[in-house]
Amino acid sequence: MTVTVATLGFPRIGPKRELKFALESHWAGKTDAPTLLATAAELRAKTWARQAALGVAHVPSNDFSLYDHVLDTSVMVGAIPPLYGWTGGPIDTAAYFAMARGTQGSSGEEACAHGHAHSHGHGLPAMEMTKWFDTNYHYLAPEVSRDQAFALSSTKPVDEFLEAKALGVHTRPVLLGPVTFLKLAKTKDEDFSPLSLLSALIPVYAEVLTRLQRAGADWVQIDEPCLALDLTEFERGELRRAYGALSHAVPGLRLMLTSYFGGYGDNLSTAVNLPIDGLHIDLARAPEELDRVLSASREGLVLSLGVIDGRNVWRANLPALLDRLDPIVSKRGGDRVILAPSCSLLHSPVDLELETGIDPEVRQWLAFAVQKIEELVILAAALNQGRPSVAGHLAASQVAAEARRTSPKIHDAAVAARLAAMTPAMAKRTSAFGRRQAIQIPRLDLPAFPTTTIGSFPQTEDVRKARSAHGKGELSDADYATFLREETARTVAWQEEIGLDVLVHGEFERNDMVQYFGEQLSGFVFTKHGWVQSYGSRCVRPPILYGDVSRPAPMTVEWWRYAQSLTDKPMKGMLTGPVTILNWSFVRDDVPRSLACRQIALAIRDEVVDLETAGAKVIQIDEAALREGLPLRRGDWGAYLDWAVECFRLTASGVADHTQIHTHMCYSEFNDIIAAIGAMDADVISIETARSKMELLDAFEAYAYPAEIGPGVYDIHSPRVPAVEEMTDLLKAAQTRLSSGQLWVNPDCGLKTRKWPETRAALINMVEAARIVRQATGVA
């Protein structure tokens, strides 16, 4: 009759990014598939053993992925687009990574899902990638069709359960639920809902659950985060139908239904009445929902209480949590309460113990994935054995919470005074877009369909080595600056050579588009090993925003000034916007997010003004993460969009009419917030559209976007080089929705993660595509 501890998922990349390096070695042809799979198995074994040793009773399996768990689910159920040549049977790693990353096609032949060679000229495109709910994790959207057939095509969940079992760890397998899977799916068929395929999909899930039960599983965690969304009554009915069928198919197997990133809201009655054995609640995002769940849930339902925030890095106040938990356990009994993180720890860095250089005062306020599990184990011990059994841990937790609350590091009177002095006029450009455009056109003197890139150029091994050597003190400041100037000069000269119209300096001095700025702003601290997976092998180290934000000194002006001195063409000033800095950081939880964002906006505003004063004619303020901060419930959108748009405008509105303000958004399905995008009042916006084949531009059929726009014409998250004809076709598709005078030509996103050969080839093709469209349109 004891309270137990569960984790809903653990970071896949390894404490020192072992998976990242194994993947990139394999993709580079340095290691074969068996070597990659052996590294993956070793990582899984260590992860299971570590969680079990910490005291986790419900250790997850099948939370590991070589690239993405949604792609794994597509493979499991046989939802493989015809493009990849699959006709049934196992799918090898080559085909798996083709779906994830696309292929270059340099040999003219590509391996299909069975390893057979097929001709695909310019390679295979990757599946569409987008954001996982309101996180910075990217998933590969399932692709289904009206006549979709499903079949069990991968036994990965069973295989990994048995793998852990052989190592002496009894796990709770994790599956992405069938309803959420279909709600995330895309289709090219008109007037067709992927959810109508549920009847065909349920038998595959039933087979997986049956195999898991036969293998010895007693609990299975099924993730249905769609329950945190606005659902129709039909969709709720489909959940009832799905779980009725699954519970009937596997009597005796206990199902833990898991939702996260928000509360159940009006879906709560549906959730608690499903034929399930356990229900997880995200109490970090929806603490107010606990009483409703307790009142609504039947007596025998096991409650998994997500009391530790799985998406942020702040240490919990354990005594305060125990005050909430004590009466629940007393009433329900320990055997019907499981303590857990609010969501998978995928979104948290692995281990704070690796951080030895961080400010000690701030460090005591933090907890990463390992420490979050330790907090859960302490809570369980206090509930099972009494608080005296862990008195030292509880006292340390309370001391840290009080130290953080009262620390003078957190509050800055000057920042508070500046916020108090803000006026509505500060968030408005002097003139409307039409007048600004009339001034900017002759000043910039650009051709129709002007070409540019989003900002970064390849961060080669030489660049990374130089940055590392500089960080270790092995390369002097002067030598490092010389190296960066040489890289910048080569890149500027090459852009001129191929005929790009608006240039960038390449950002070789920048480690990350958020970290680079956070390191120069007050109120942030940084880790050395606090990596979090963004997609595939791409990992980021989110800054930790712990206090009030200001800009002590200019951050980018000197690098812009140097780059502009190398060319007569316009050189973009490149900045990251306040909403993106906020959403891609671990944010303080002691003030509203809107207040923290306004502080950042004022700091970036200072940089924008300084760039204009230095002579910049074009300044790009990237807001790649604006949509991912959108609340999951539509009723909450208005408040968020109001302050997010205000913060962008506050950043951009300190300049004169003749300064052209760009912004960029990537992998953001913003058709439903297009009016808010327009309200940002940028002069030019560039967006991701290549993977979706300009699907995002459908929004402009109903909304007359007032400004200029650069729909991405090639996918930079793939090594594939698209043909000139392909990019030309995308531009022609854009012309059906937007006027020629509105259109810019650019890639989907920055080129930091790409290699130079594919970058050169793709950009040369892009410039040629722009030339062809200009000629065909008859404009100069």
Task: Give a description of the structure.
This protein has 780 residues and is an alpha/beta fold. 41% of the residues lie in helices and 12% in strands. Helix 11 packs across helix 13 (369-385), helix 17 (461-471) runs antiparallel to helix 18 and helix 22 (593-614) runs parallel beside helix 23 (637-652). The chain is globular, with a radius of gyration of 26 Å. The relative contact order is 0.09. Mean pLDDT is 93; it is low at 107-121.
How are the secondary structure elements laid out?
Blueprint: E1 4-5, H1 18-27, H2 33-54, E2 59-61, H3 69-77, H4 93-101, E3 109-111, E4 117-119, E5 129-131, E6 138-140, E7 143-144, H5 156-166, E8 171-176, H6 178-184, E9 186-187, H7 198-215, E10 219-223, H8 233-249, E11 254-258, H9 268-272, E12 278-282, H10 290-296, E13 302-308, H11 318-332, E14 337-341, H12 360-363, H13 369-385, H14 391-406, H15 413-420, H16 433-444, H17 461-471, H18 477-498, H19 515-518, E15 524-525, E16 532-535, E17 538-540, E18 544-545, H20 557-564, E19 573-576, H21 578-583, E20 586-587, H22 593-614, E21 618-622, H23 637-652, E22 660-665, H24 674-679, E23 684-687, H25 699-702, E24 708-711, H26 724-735, H27 756-777
Parallel strand pairs: 1-14, 2-8, 7-9, 8-10, 10-11, 11-12, 12-13, 13-14, 18-20, 19-21, 21-22, 22-23, 23-24
Antiparallel strand pairs: 3-4, 5-6, 15-18, 16-17
Helix pairs in contact: 1-2, 5-7, 7-8, 11-13, 17-18, 22-23, 26-27
